[in-house]
Amino acid sequence: MSNLILLRGNFLAPKGAIATAVVQSLPGVFEYEGQVVIAVTDNAFWMVAPNEEHLMIPYRNIRSVRPDQFPGIVYREYVDGVETLVAPNDTAGVTVEFKEYAEFYRRLSFLTFYPNKAHEWARTIENAVSNFNRRKFEEKG
Q: How many angstroms separate the Cα of 138 from the Cα of each of 83, 132, 134?
């Protein structure tokens, strides 16, 4: 049983997503290259590909979130059924740094294309991490 639901078109999102967007994934931690859904849930940040491949980062693992620029980035995209390389004019995005496997730090990056959207998503993720930490602190208290 999958914990993913159909969002729109052929995009999937985790059940219980609070905020979602379709963005361009960048090569790195998440091996799928193309348009993906990013999602914020109560407990984690998600990146989900149309083929159901996904990465879930628990909020406790996130160390930093920042808007970023990716000048010179080129990615593959299908245009009219033909694979082509795209070099976008606007290369704004977000980088999420997280801890994995003891002391290994990883970076997940994605393009929002617009600086205001990059800042908005960085704040959305930071707020979700902060709210999660506050809830966990209150549960202990």
A: 51, 10, 6
CA pair distance 11, 21, nearest whole angstrom? 10
pLDDT digits (tens, 9 = 90+) for 84-120: 999 999 999 999 999 987 778 999 999 999 999 999 9
User: How many Å apart are CA 97 and CA 108, to the nearest integer?
Assistant: 6
Q: Tokens representing 125?
A: 């993720």
Q: What is the CATH number of domain 4-140?
A: 2.30.29.30
Backbone φ, ψ for residue 66 (5° rounding):
-150, 145
User: Is residue 1 pLDDT above 60, yes or no?
Assistant: no
Element (H, E) at 48: strand 44-48
Secondary structure class of 136 (helix, strand, coil): helix
- The pTM for the full model equals 0.90
Strands 92-100 and 11-14: unpaired
What are the extents of the domains in the chain?
4-140
